[in-house]
Amino acid sequence: MLVFDCFFGRCERPSCDGCMLKPVRSLRRMLKAREMEKKAGGSEADDALKRAEAAAAAIAGAGPRKASASRKVKLLVPREEIPWYPTIKPDLCNGCGDCQVLCKAGVFEPGPPDPAGIQRPKFVVAHPERCVVLCDKCVPVCTSGGIVMPDPKSIEKYIEYVDE
């Protein structure tokens, strides 16, 4: 195994326990978390509002609008009834855990261990109701491309944009 495999999440070991390269993996996760926080810039609510407005503009067929501080997203039904949550493709997930580190809402958890003990456990969407509506930060952070989100147009009947 190479240091680069560990750093880029391509390690084939089932766990980092007892591995001499564990600090390399920890460094990667820390750097990834810092990078995502810097990209977010503002608070999580501001970021979600900007994405929601961009999605609404895409749904309406208009270009992206400038974010206004008085524009809010209102859910028309309880959160549990809105089908907005990630789906993980198990064949693509490499068990790196970047999604779990990034998601402050706690949507992801490690799945069952590999029966043969050869690979790390794949991650699963354990708490889909915790996912922030129109948040898709986990998609670009997934190194293997295993996370898929629903189309924003599919939830337009569940949300409303309110000027306050």
Feature tags:
two-stranded antiparallel ribbon, Ferredoxin family protein, 5 helices, 164 residues, 4Fe4S_Fe-S-bd, 6 strands, alpha+beta, Alpha-Beta Plaits
Task: Provide a descriptive summary of the structure in words.
With 164 residues, the chain is α+β, with helices and mostly antiparallel strands. The protein has helices spanning 3-7, 22-40, 44-60, 98-102, 138-141; strands at residues 71-75, 87-88, 108-110, 123-125, 147-148, 159-163. The protein has a single domain (43-163), classed as Alpha-Beta Plaits (2-Layer Sandwich). The strands form 3 sheets. A two-stranded antiparallel ribbon has the order 1-6. It has a two-stranded antiparallel ribbon with strand order 2-5. Strands 3-4 form a two-stranded antiparallel ribbon. The radius of gyration is 18 Å and the shape is elongated. It starts with a helix and ends with a strand.
Which stretches are low in confidence, meaning pLDDT under 50 for 5 or more residues running?
62-68
The description of the largest β-sheet is: 2 strands, antiparallel
How are strands sequenced across the largest beta sheet?
1-6
Q: Over all CA atoms, what is the radius of gyration?
A: 18 Å
What is the percent of helical residues?
A: 25-40%
